[in-house]
Amino acid sequence: MDGYDFHSVSLSVSRLAVYYGQGKAEREHISLSITLTLLFRSVGAIIFGLAGDLYGRKWPMVINLMVIAVLQLATAFCETFQSFLGVRALFGIGMGGIWGLSASMALENMPMEARGLFSGILQQGYALGYLIAAGINMGVVPNSKHSFKMLYYIGAGLTFAVALARCCFPESKQFIEAKRNGGDEISGKMKVRLFMNDARKILREYWKRCIYAVILMALFNYMSHTSQDMYPTYMQQTKGFSAMASSKATMIAKTGAVVGGTFCGYYSQFFGRRATIMIACALGAALIPLWVLPNTFASLVTGAFLLQFMVQGAWGVVPIHLNELSPPQFRSSFPGICYQLGNMISAPAAQISATISESLEIHVRGEVRPDYAITQAIMMSVIFSLLLVWTACGQEQRGSHFELAKTAGEAEGKERELEDGDKHGVEAVEMAQR
C-alpha cells in the first residue's frame, strides 16, 4: 500500500494536469507534489521510527497506516492545486514511517538464513503496489465517473484494511521479550530519558555509518524515482502511447521489478549484499538503450521489464542490508531515517526530469513532443555508475543476529536498576552501623 499510495500521483499526472489546468507547465507543477511528498517523508521517518523503537512495532504501524488512509482520501477532495500540494506534503509525513517499521518488523521475525529472500519479497511490495495501482488506472479509472479520483478512494480503503489486519497480529518478539523482562516497570519519563541516552551514544559511535547510509539511500532513491515516477508520462508524451498503453507498460515493468527484487534478494544471501547491488547496477546501465531507443511497444516494454528487474533487484537487498548495518536496538529508526533522508535528497528527481524534458523538443511525424527519453537515459547512466562505486566503498554485516539485541534503553535501564539497588544496600548498611 506504500507503493500504491505514492504512485497514484505519478500514474495520473496527465489527468491531474487537465483537472488543475492544461498545458505542459502544469505537468511540471504536478511533479512538484511528488517532490513535496519525498521531502516530508524524512519527518515521518523520525516520528514513527523513534516511536517504533521506543513503544514497539505494532501500534505505531497501525496509527501510521490510518493517517495515510485519511490523507489519501483527502487527496481526492482537493479542489485547488494549492490544497492538493498541501495534502501531498502531509501525506509524505505519514508515508515516511512505513518503510522502517515494516522492514524491522518483518526481518527480525525471520530466520537469519532466509532474510535475503524475504528482504526481496518485502521490498517488492512497493513494486506490487505500483502494479495494482496501474491495473486500477487501466481498468477502473477510464470507466468511472470519478475519473482519477477512484485511485485515491480505493487506495484509502485498502490502506485502512491493512491497518485493521495489522491489529490482528502480535507485537514483535523483541518487544514481547522486553515486556517479560520488566520493561513496562520503567516509568514513561524514565523510559524516554534512557532511550535518548542510548540514541546519543549510538550517534557518537555510528555517525560515519549514518552518513554512508544516507548517501547510499539518496542514490538508490534517485535510481528508482528517475526510472519510475515519470515513466507513464514518458510513454504518453514522448512515445505517443495512450494512457491505457502506458498503464500496460507500467504493469509489465513492475512485474520485472517483483521478479528481480525477489531473485536478487535471495542470491544476496550467498554472493553478499554489496556484490549483488553492484552487479545489478552494471547490468542495469547496459540495458538503458533498450529502455529508451525503440519506438515499438513490444521493444519498449521489454526494455522496461529488464531495467526494472535490475533496479528493483538492487533494491531487494536494501531492507536486509540496512537492518544489518543498523545499531541493533534502533532498527526501526536508523534504516527508516537514512532511507527517508536519502529520499529527501532525491526529492527533486521527478521535477528535474520533467523540467529538463519539457524544455527539450523532438519532432515525431510533424508533432512536437517533450524528450523524456534522452533526459532519463543520461540521468540513469550517471546514477547507476555512482551507486556502483559508492556501494563498493562501503561494508556489510551479512549474517548479523540483530534479533537478539535488547530494545533501546532496556540494557541501560537494567544497569540503572542495579545501581539503584546497590545504592539502597549501602544506605541500609550505614544506617545499621549508626
TrEMBL record:
Query: A Gene Ontology MF term for this entry?
Result: carboxylic acid transmembrane transporter activity
Subcellular localization(s) per the UniProt record: Membrane
Region (Disordered) location: 407-434
How does this chain sit within the bilayer?
Answer: Multi-pass membrane protein
**Annotated TM spans:** 30-52, 59-77, 89-107, 150-169, 206-224, 373-393
| Stored Pfam families | Sugar_tr
Q: Which UniProt keywords apply?
A: Membrane, Transmembrane, Transmembrane helix
All copies of domain Major facilitator superfamily (MFS) profile, residue ranges: 1-397
Task: Tell me what this protein is called.
Answer: Major facilitator superfamily domain-containing protein
Native organism is Sphaerosporella brunnea
